[in-house]
Design a protein that fits this description.
Distance between the termini: 30 Å
Number of helices: 11
Order of helices and strands: HEEHHHHHHHEEHEEHHE
Strand content: 5-15%
Bound molecules: benzoyl coenzyme A
Amino acid sequence: MISAEKIPNNVNLSDNKRLQRALEHWQPKYIQWWHDMGPQGFQDHHQVYVRTAVSVDPEGWAHFEYVKLPEYRWGIFLADPVHDRRIGFGDFFGQPVWQEVPGEFRNQLRRLIVTQGDTEPASVEQQRMLGQRCPSLYDLRNLFQVNVEEGRHLWAMVYLLHSYFGRDGRDEAEELLERQSGNRDKPRILQAFNEPIDNWLDFFMFTMFTDRDGKSQLMSLSESSLDPLARTTRFMLTEEAHHMFVGETGIARILERTCQLMREAGFSGDVRKLGGIDLPTIQKHLNQWFSLSLDLHGSEVSSNAASYFANGLKGRAKEDTFGEHVVKDAVYNMEFFEGGKAVAKDVLMRHAMNEVLRDWYVGDCAAGVDRWNRVLETYGFSERLRLPDRKFNRGIGMYTGFHFDPNGAPVSNETWERRKYEWLPSAADTEYLLSIMATPVYEPGKFANYIAPPRRGINQQPIDFEYVRTEQ
Ligand code: BYC
């Protein structure tokens, strides 16, 4: 029986029998999926010190306790309603927001919600083996915190599908548990969510760059005219912030340790001899996850994006900071690649909305990379990490099918094949990373050799707190 105690919520679940029944039908399948596809080896005999959202106020969503992962209370929360909220952009600008799904936009909204929902279980699947290679109990807890919250974000989308899309919504909710990351026959919808994440450098880069795409997409969905979607995604953003913290500080701690080892070794190339992660390897993983996450913003010129904007379904990040919200005739000056050369052309702004969001995203990533570079600076090294050009290694949009180096200069197929592993992780890099992560570190307060301890623990606990307890 589903109750507010089992599923903390602020959507009056106990008064909505139809929704309760639908979720009761879905929940056992979810739990089965979590067992099969969630963190491997940490389902039955471990207690994890995690945060559970029990309400939307600041105290409510920072409630910490030890739980067994399959018993985590995945709740359903919408941010508080905004009184007399009006549609903030597009053709219906200024009209009251919708509490129900308008028939004419049903398919588009369902598609957006399904695409968002699909990424959440996908990331849990991608990360399911990492617990067995963790650098510390502190990091293990953070991994599981991210995993359970992605599970909660899936619940958030399933709540919308069940509440507003009837039979089709119920079918889509089932399919969200049937597709599988990397599966040849039933892959996840977006490409970055089919890539393996089998080592912690990938995990930290993913939470830095791909979760940041989560931030930009959720920010644009939180502007939606469909008020329940806007309120759901607004609350999800509070959790997303922690995921990016995990990624950003994870890489900063690896950099710190790399700097210490570089001091011992003399230069970056020898860091591997001391069991650390050299800067070129870090840069290659940055290149990979940044370019994959650029793809997640869709094509530069997109009639889907134009129609989402016109219909008020998906806005720009921080829509209220723009001067004009209807954007009927405005243009965006975009760089095309034609006949081997860059050519600038004007495109209707509505068709360029994916690129507008990508601009915001690139700026947010660049600020994060600057913060990483301060670690190198503090240790007195002149090397710097940097974002590759946005044309580099693209699989979606107008640069697909061409090759560019990280500076954005076009390169031939032959040069790409010869040099790509200077820019992207090779099988040998992965093998090396797996070799230094082969032995997990489960002793409280101890850290793998390739990563520095964090500045402080979680929820004011000490760094050597037993964040994950094993039951005898
Ligand atoms: N891979 O006009 P186009 C997160 C498809 S992450 C494969 O280019 P559109 C999280 C596209 O679906 C945030 N296919 O793009 C992070 C379309 O297919 P259909 C997730 C792709 O539609 C970490 C076709 O190409 N949220 O939360 O304007 C951990 C042409 O589409 C890709 C969302 O994505 C790709 N990379 O924009 C956990 C928000 N890109 O429909 C969670 C919802 C495009 O013709 N999604 N395609 O069959 C959207 O807003 C849009 O679907 C997209 C694409 C921005 C993804």
